[in-house]
Amino acid sequence: MNQIKCIGILTSGGDAPAMNAAIRAVTRTAIYYGFEVRGIMRGYNGLILDEIIEMKTQTVSNIIQQGGTILKTARSNEFKTPEGRKIAYDNMRKAGIDALVVIGGDGSLSGARVFAAEYDIPIVGLPGTIDNDLYGTDTTIGYDTALNTITWAVDRLRDTASSHERLFFVEVMGRNAGFLALNGAIATGSEAAIIPEIATEVDQLAELIQNGFRKSKNSSIVLVAESEITGGAMGMAERVKKEFPQYDTRVTILGHIQRGGSPTASDRILASRMGEAAINALIEGQRNVMIGIQNDALVYVPFTKAIRDDKPINRDLLKTIKILSI
Length: 326
Ligand code: ADP
Known about the structure:
alpha/beta, Rossmann fold, seven-stranded mixed β-sheet, four-stranded parallel β-sheet, about 40% helix, binds adenosine-5'-diphosphate
């Protein structure tokens, strides 16, 4: 029944800690079950440019603890065109690859969905993004490590913030998803989180100021998710300057340090379980699904659902932050 002999694996889009742990798990599980494995370098670009390498068990030795991705990652505009995908498909067949495991965020899985539909290829996705913004999985590979990095960084900012009695806006990643800001705020005892999910419903900044958040405190840290709607941390600081000039504000954009570093144990375990599950899914004849985790159980989430732009965020946590920061 099952015609798959050789499985290709690639990492695409923004890198995330524990992508290597996922590559290792996919490679070793596939070899364990008798498949051949090929690594595709630099995401979909590697398919188009024919950068395909053989993966053996030793290829993935000693990488579980490393950040980044040994397969490299990239964004590919050419893959967004039918012509680009035709070249990718031809190279894939030439290399004898019958199925793909794609590790990446919503963009990468959108690409996988289009490619699978066009060429009838079995593709299984793994949610590899620090943003945690894929629907159908409680967490994504890299999210926990990024949250810990944010906690580490904000703890240091707190020292200087309290010495100077300032209002710090700290921008965290999350491309229109407030998971890192919200949970990062709880983990660091921040005074507030400004998240895009509710940006059109309430004026989060005005609410914060009206609540007199700074009255009894000598420092205030607000985590702001990057967002075009709110303007991120810079947008907040500009507004304060205009509307509430009595406050001395500072902006810190954590940027790419959030993507780096050795993955946490949680992320390594998640990536290892999901990597094994990806191969099991292909063996079972699953296709066009992302591996997710819900209440500690592995699940298959159709690509169309996973990339929906509306993963619900737990709004109760906003109240938690408010209560705990009085
Ligand atoms: P992420 O996976 O981190 O969300 P991107 O959004 O940059 O990253 O997507 C990664 C790559 O996936 C893109 O550079 C492109 O090659 C591919 N991709 C994204 N969306 C599509 C699409 N609609 N059709 C084809 N390929 C896509």
